[in-house]
Amino acid sequence: MTLKKILIVSGTHGNEINPVWAVNQFCKQNNITDKNIEYKFIIGNPLAFKKGIRYIDTDLNRSFDFKKNLNKTNYEIDRANFLAENFGINSSETCQIAIDLHTTTANMGTSIVMYGRRNVDFCLAALLQNKFGLPIYLHENDKNQKGFLVEAWPCGLVIEIGSVPQNFYDPNIVNRFLIIISDLRDEINKLKNNLIKLPKELIVHVHQGSIDYPREKNGSINGIIHPDRINQDWKQIKRGDPLFLDINGNSIFYLGDADICPVFIGEVAYKEKNIAMSYTKKELIFSSEEWVNEFLGL
Ligand SMILES: [Zn+2]
């Protein structure tokens, strides 16, 4: 196994401050080069973090599509290039895995977000789901959303924890990040030393699409998340279940045929993306030896 370094990124969104605190606390209390695997810590978007805003010019976590960015420049595109050049493959500090720490204002609890179906990501997600029982949100085939940070590394996941407001320190949220940072290396070492096996099955919530708020013709929002739907992330809904409550007090219902599980319900940062919630379908995936072999060969 050549895996030696894991890049832990906090503050990719500058107003998600709990992961930054958790990382600082972890570094004070632990030897980061311990346990065969070294952690490299970096603040993704330091200027946005300083200002307490999500980003300066564009969303950093959509800025890692290097083909699309060719010949373009702004603060986040430059920052994406800097991170890939300094911590990506073939850099002086090559990290094989990137873990990107985020918070959400939605009531998601602690979850894993993965992008696409790389075997190595499945392996790491299975390892964490096995240890912590975390739900997995598999984001794929979304034409409007590309260029996620972890896609620029051979293996990588987002840890997403909520609900917590932007720019608000919550010690319980900090603690959840600390537990994951502390245990991640131990779990990888256990897998490497054949002390644990991956679970046979993995339940993933596969991204299907997103739903916008109801709007007036002029674009202004004229409905809010329905009281039966607010804070009910991951709960399955069916045709006829309420989604929104319009300004006249009328319910607006889900009219699709498939049973779906909404996530990121009411996420504040997604309003600008015209997303009131995303929706997923549950899929059972069987783990394989290939996942482990590829992961340990990183
Ligand atoms: Zn974020």
How many structural units, i.e. domains?
A: 1
Sketch the major β-sheet.
Answer: 9 strands, mixed
User: What is the highest CATH level, the class?
Assistant: Alpha Beta
**Small molecules bound in the structure, each named once:** zinc ion
Question: What is the H/E order?
Answer: EHEHHHEEHEEHEEEEEEH
Sequence of strands across the biggest β-sheet = 2-1-3-6-4-5-7-12-11
- Low-pLDDT parts are none
* N- to C-terminal distance: 7 Å
What fraction of the residues are assigned to beta strands by DSSP? Answer: 15-25%
Shape: globular
CATH topology: Aminopeptidase
Mean pLDDT across residues? 95
Number of strands: 12
Cα-atom radius of gyration: 19 Å
Structural class: alpha/beta
Helical coverage, percent range = 25-40%
Q: Helical segment tally?
A: 7
**Secondary-structure arrangement, i.e. CATH architecture:** 3-Layer(aba) Sandwich
CATH superfamily (homologous) name: Zn peptidases
Itemize the secondary structure elements and their pairings.
Elements: E1 5-10, H1 18-29, E2 38-43, H2 46-51, H3 66-69, H4 75-87, E3 97-103, E4 109-115, H5 119-132, E5 136-139, E6 155-162, H6 171-192, E7 201-211, E8 223-225, E9 242-246, E10 251-253, E11 261-263, E12 277-286, H7 289-296
Helix pairs in contact: 1-6, 5-6, 5-7
The chain binds zinc ion (ZN).
The site of zinc ion has 4 residues, from loops.
Concise synopsis of the structure shown:
This protein has 298 residues and is α/β, with parallel strands linked by helices. 27% of the residues lie in helices and 24% in strands. The longest helix is centred in the middle third of the chain and has 22 residues.
